[in-house]
Amino acid sequence: LTALYSNHLDWIAGKRGLPGCPFVIFVQEFDDHNGDVRNALIMSQKLWRRALASAASVAQQNQQINRQAHPGQIAFELVGAALAFQVSHNLLRDRNTRDQALVAFNQIIN
Length: 110
Fold this sequence. Notes:
Strand content: under 5%
Distance between the termini: 13 Å
Structural class: mainly alpha
Radius of gyration: 14 Å
Largest sheet: none
Shape: globular
Low-confidence stretches: none
Mean pLDDT: 91
């Protein structure tokens, strides 16, 4: 779970190519349009959240995280923290953003 989240932050920060998560842009553009693009976005977001929830569940079972909330709730909160990271890092250019995102991660899992 930690690796998924950390790598996602790296991706958003542009350490693996262009900065930012293109899915955020796509969602804003296609959220109110029916069709194949919207359906593909829905599928990708559900898969990402399932991956996070699955990792959270495994971490709970292995006692790697303390929080016993539903894994889907943990995934939801991690997605929100990553979105906040994207705005703060890419738009506001806040130098402390990664530290804040890691604090948020620790608060979500504990």
